[in-house]
C-alpha cells in the first residue's frame, strides 16, 4: 500500500474532474503520456483503464476533484504517474473497499481493486470526512 | 603511503605528478612505442597495429593532460577524456569478443613503460609507483565497463532469444498454435501470450492451441498467465486449447490449487488440432484446408 | 448535449459500431436505445462492434454484460465483436470476464454466429 511516492515532473499537468467529459479528458491525457513514455500497447491500455476507473471514482464517490499526471523517473526507468485527489467523504474501511466485488455506489466493485492490479505502483491515502488521494504509476519495461 | 596527512600528500603528490608529466612528455615517442609493443604482443594481431596505435596515442595524450591538470584524481573532471577513451575501448573489446585480460592489458601494459632500472633515482621510483597505482585504478575501471557491456550484450541476446523462441504458427485455416519450448518465466509467458492473441486478429483465426510439450515445469505465475490468456482469447471470440501437459505439470497445477475450470486440454498437439478443426466444422474426411 | 451512438438495422439484426471514446452518459443512453430498438423492430440479434475501442473499463464492461442480459430477455442474442488483444488482457486483469456475453473475432463472424445461433456457447464467467 505504501512505498516511495512517485513525484510527477515539474511539467506535470493538472485537470479538474467534475463531469463525465472530464473523465474522458483524463483518459486521453494519460494515454498521450503513456505513448510519449513508450509503454507497450498492453501497458498503455492497462494504465489508461486504471485511470478511467480512478477518475470515475473521484467524480462519483469523491464528488469531484483533480488529477495530476506526468512522467516520472526512478533510477534509469521512466514511467507515467497519475494522482487523483478529492475532498469527499473518504473511505471508512479500506480493506473492504479494496475487496473485489464490494461497492458503495452500485458499480461492479472492481474500480479500486482492479485499478491496483493494472498498475505497478499503487498508493492510497484516505481520511474520513477529508478526502481521498490515489496515486498510480506504470513503468516502461 | 597510508596515514599521510592531507596537506603533505597533496604537495608531495603534486611534485610527483609534475615529474611524471615531465618524463612522459620528454620521452613521448619511445614510451608510446614501448606501450604499443607491449599491448600488441598480447593481442597477437587480433586488432590492427594502426588502430591500436591510434587508440593508445589518444589515451597517452589524455593521460598526460589528466596528470597535468588533475594530479592523480582519476575520478575528477580532468580525467573525463581518459575515462571516455577507456570506456569506448572496453566497450569495443567486449563487443568484439576479447577476453577481460586482453582488454585490461591495453591499460596495464602502460605500467611497464616507466619500469625503474638500477639507475633510476629514488624520486623517480616513487613517481613510478604512483603511476603504477593510477594505472591499476584505470585498469579496474576498464574492466568494470567491460563487464557492464557484456551484461548488456547478454540481456539483449536473451531478449532476441525470447523473440526467436516464441513462434506463433498457423496450422490450418482458422487455427494458430504456439509450441512453447524450455523454461517459462512470467515475462516470457506474457510476451508469448500477447503475440498469440495478436496473431488471432491478424490471421482471423478463432482457434488457438498452446502446446507445452517442451515445457519442463510451470510455477503459479506462469499457470495463471496461461489461464488469463485463455480467458482473454475467449473475450475476443476465440477458443484456446492447451495441449501436451506433462504429468508433473498437471500435478503442480492441481497442487497449487489453480482452477483450470472448463478449459479444454488435450494430450497431444495432434489431438488439439483435431479438436480445433471439429469446432470449426472442418470435414476431415475431405481433403483441403478450407474451413 | 451528449451525442448518441447510432444503432443501425440490417435485416433483423441491430448493429452498433462504437467509434469514439465514450463518456459514461453516452454509454447509458446506448443501453436504453438498444433496449427500445429491439422492442420497436423485433430484432433477433444485436452486434456491438468494438474494433475501434481502445479501452473497456468496468463501466463499459458492465454495459456490455447488462445489454446482453436485457436483449436476451427481449428474445435477441447479443454478440460483441472485434475486441482488441490489449483490451481483452486488461479486462481479464481487471477481473471482468463478461460472463454470458457472446463474442466473435470479427463483424462477419459475429453476424454468422447470429445466423447459426447454437454454433458456439457464450463465454463463461
UniProtKB/TrEMBL annotation, chain A:
Residues 43-137 form the Histidine kinase/HSP90-like ATPase domain. InterPro entries: HATPase_C_sf, HATPase_dom. This is Anti-sigma regulatory factor. It comes from [Kitasatospora] papulosa.
UniProtKB/TrEMBL annotation, chain B:
The keyword Mitochondrion does not apply. Keywords: Phosphoprotein. Residues 165-276 form the STAS domain. SUPFAM superfamilies: SpoIIaa-like (SSF52091). It comes from the Bacteria. The keyword Phosphoprotein applies. This is Anti-sigma-factor antagonist.
From TrEMBL, chain C:
Pfam families: STAS (PF01740). Residues 3-114 form the STAS domain. This is STAS domain-containing protein. It comes from [Kitasatospora] papulosa.
Amino acid at each position: 500500500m505504501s512505498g516511495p511516492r512517485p513525484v510527477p515532473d515539474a511539467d506535470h499537468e493538472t485537470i479538474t474532474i467534475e463531469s463525465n467529459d472530464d473523465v474522458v479528458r483524463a483518459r486521453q491525457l494519460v494515454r498521450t503520456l503513456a505513448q510519449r513514455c513508450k509503454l507497450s500497447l498492453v501497458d498503455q491500455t492497462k494504465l489508461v483503464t486504471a485511470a478511467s476507473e480512478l477518475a470515475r471514482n473521484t467524480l462519483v464517490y469523491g464528488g469531484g476533484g483533480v488529477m495530476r499526471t506526468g512522467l516520472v523517473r526512478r533510477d534509469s526507468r521512466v514511467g507515467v504517474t497519475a494522482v487523483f485527489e478529492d475532498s469527499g467523504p473518504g473511505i471508512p474501511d479500506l480493506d473492504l473497499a479494496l475487496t473485489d466485488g464490494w461497492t458503495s455506489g452500485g458499480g461492479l466493485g472492481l474500480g479500486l481493486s482492479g485499478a491496483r492490479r493494472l498498475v505497478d505502483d499503487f498508493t492510497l491515502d484516505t481520511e474520513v470526512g477529508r478526502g481521498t488521494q490515489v496515486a498510480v504509476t506504470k513503468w516502461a519495461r | 603511503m597510508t596515514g599521510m596527512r592531507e596537506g603533505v600528500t597533496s604537495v608531495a603528490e603534486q611534485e610527483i605528478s609534475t615529474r611524471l608529466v615531465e618524463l612522459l612528455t620528454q620521452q613521448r615517442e619511445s614510451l608510446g612505442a614501448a606501450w604499443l609493443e607491449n599491448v600488441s604482443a598480447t593481442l597477437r594481431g587480433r586488432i590492427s597495429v594502426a588502430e591500436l596505435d591510434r587508440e593508445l596515442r589518444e589515451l597517452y595524450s589524455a593521460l598526460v593532460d589528466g596528470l597535468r591538470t588533475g594530479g592523480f584524481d582519476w575520478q575528477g573532471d580532468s580525467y573525463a577524456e581518459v575515462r571516455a577513451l577507456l570506456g569506448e575501448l572496453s566497450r569495443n573489446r567486449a563487443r568484439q569478443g576479447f577476453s577481460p585480460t586482453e582488454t585490461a592489458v591495453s591499460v596495464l601494459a602502460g605500467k611497464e613503460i616507466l619500469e625503474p632500472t638500477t639507475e633510476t633515482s629514488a624520486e623517480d621510483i616513487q613517481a613510478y609507483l604512483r603511476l603504477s597505482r593510477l594505472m591499476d585504478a584505470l585498469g579496474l575501471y576498464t574492466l568494470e565497463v567491460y563487464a557492464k557491456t557484456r551484461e548488456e550484450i547478454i540481456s539483449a541476446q536473451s531478449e532476441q532469444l525470447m523473440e526467436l523462441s516464441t513462434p506463433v504458427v498457423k496450422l490450418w485455416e482458422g487455427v494458430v498454435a504456439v509450441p512453447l519450448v524450455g523454461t517459462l518465466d512470467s515475462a516470457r509467458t506474457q510476451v508469448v501470450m500477447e503475440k498469440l492473441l495478436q496473431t488471432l486478429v491478424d490471421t482471423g483465426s478463432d482457434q488457438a492451441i498452446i502446446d507445452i510439450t517442451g515445457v519442463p515445469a510451470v510455477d503459479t505465475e506462469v499457470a495463471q498467465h496461461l489461464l488469463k490468456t485463455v480467458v482473454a482469447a475467449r473475450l475476443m471470440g476465440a477458443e484456446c486449447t492447451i495441449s501436451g501437459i506433462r504429468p508433473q505439470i498437471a500435478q503442480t497445477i492441481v497442487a497449487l490449487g489453480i482452477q483450470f475450470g472448463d478449459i479444454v486440454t488435450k494430450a497431444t498437439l495432434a489431438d488439439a488440432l483435431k479438436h480445433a478443426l471439429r469446432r470449426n466444422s472442418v470435414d476431415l474426411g475431405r481433403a483441403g484446408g478450407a474451413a | 448535449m451528449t451525442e448518441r451512438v447510432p444503432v443501425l438495422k440490417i435485416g433483423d439484426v441491430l448493429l452498433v459500431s462504437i467509434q469514439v471514446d465514450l463518456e459514461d452518459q453516452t454509454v447509458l443512453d446506448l443501453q436504453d436505445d438498444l433496449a427500445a430498438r429491439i422492442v420497436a423492430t423485433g430484432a433477433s440479434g444485436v452486434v456491438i462492434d468494438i474494433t475501434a475501442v481502445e479501452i473497456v473499463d468496468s463501466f463499459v464492461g458492465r454495459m456490455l454484460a447488462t445489454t446482453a442480459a436485457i436483449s436476451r430477455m427481449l428474445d435477441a442474442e447479443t454478440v460483441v465483436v472485434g475486441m482488441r488483444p490489449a483490451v481483452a488482457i486488461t479486462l481479464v486483469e481487471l477481473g471482468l470476464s463478461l460472463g454470458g456475453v457472446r463474442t466473435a473475432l470479427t463483424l462477419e463472424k459475429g453476424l454468422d454466429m447470429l445466423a447459426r445461433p447454437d454454433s458456439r456457447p457464450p463465454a463463461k464467467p
